[in-house]
Amino acid sequence: MRTAVFFKLFLAALSLCVLAPALSIDAEAGFFVASGETMALSNFSSDGTAYTMLKINGVPSVVFKSTDGGFSPVTDDAQVAVLVPAFLRTQALPFDAATLSSVRSNYDYVNGEVGTCVEGVNVFYGCRTPPPFPCAYMWITILPEDPQSLAEVRKMDPVFPVLQQGMGGLTSAMSSLESAFAENDLDASATAAATMYDSVAAIQANYNTIAAAVSVIRPNYFYAFDYWNQTSSTPVKANCTSTVSLSNALNSLSTFAASTKALSTGDALDSIKSTTAARNASAGAKRIHYFKAEAFRPLSQDARKVLLEFGSAGLVVTGFSNQLSGATTALELIRNATTVSDAEARASDFDSKEAALEAKTALYESLFPEYNASVVMQSNASSQIQKASKRYGANSEFVVPLQKQYSATKLSLKAVQDKLSAGQDASLADLKKITANYTQLVDSASGLKSRESQVDWVIVGGVAVVVIAILAAILYFRKFKPSLPSLKGKKEEKVIDVRRLPPSQQGGQPPAEGPPWMKR
Fold this sequence. Notes:
Largest sheet: 4 strands, antiparallel
Strand order of the largest sheet: 1-2-3-4
Number of strands: 6
Low-confidence stretches: 1-21, 451-457
Helix content: 55-70%
Structural class: alpha+beta
Number of helices: 15
Strand content: 5-15%
């Protein structure tokens, strides 16, 4: 059996080598995608060769080359640099008009908050210039006497230019993005999205510092951050406040920009190089797990069937169940490997557990029919012996031998059950002998006649003996009876038939001699 097992493992390993190139692109790409990530596949060609781009969470991440009906990742950076522009030329814009409208809405909200704040703070800094700006008086006379406000201004000094530049970049990016959409220019939209992404990051990193400083300075200089614009006849008050709505709008713009900017040539190249290098090893480990899992699935199903069969017969085969769990756990450890070498080492441990499980499964599959037959015949034998006990009594000479044989056979079956429960090997020959013993008990117990039946035959036998004795006596007396005594020498009475007498004697005078009774 051991030779057969290793031969099957050899065939399984050989089949893996054959099946590996035949995996679908979905399966190959799936090895590079982590749990919770989304994947999308796009086909394109370059110089007559077919390729597939894997986008993870909307970002180009791995290029696959079609080879011999299968797919393998392109790991050469120079080749990737040639393939990315070819891919981008085949791609439409990654967003539609509704998405662009949502982006515009979020931008307008950010501009209404951050843009207004930037304008107000810009005017505040302009007050440093001497007249004609009336507010210069605040800088000349008041702020020097207000240490707290001056400290906040010092905090704003290095931050405000970055915030101002970020807001300007966001405004420019919004305009460029709308132009790129109108012209269906993928590269221009990616460039605009890249500018938007960087600009939003600058705003998120610096806005709260400005907002905090304004909240300290404004109470003492109420009009310090007011400004006039071309459309308003009254000063516009810069709020410069941090709100949840503003944070949500900035996050939405950043998310959109991150997925769209990745379609630019530069960002796509960087993404593909880094993702392929970082995930190729773990993908190789997942590939090993995939083939091991595919080969293990039929064995796992057979093993679970064995567990159910013995369970249905009332026996929990704990040892065998533990073997199945051990092999399953070893398989999962391969899935968690991060390198090919680690996966191969774990696969070696799994292979040994799989081989042991396969041998045990084959043995238990062959044992179950006979084991089940033994259990069934045990139940039948017990039932027949109980019936015999009711007819003759438990201590009857008919029942006691059957009970002894039943107890001995039950012990034999218990020994086999203990082995099976512990996951040990058991003998098919032993089970067949047990089944045969139980079958013999069933035949013997069911062949016994009832007590009533026994009594009837005794009575019939007794009656038959009596009848035979009577018949024998009758025959004897008929054949050997003694002779009756002789009547010779005695006067016999003569009987006279009156009807034969002469008429003269039939009536009237009696005969002369008189009747016989008159004589002496």
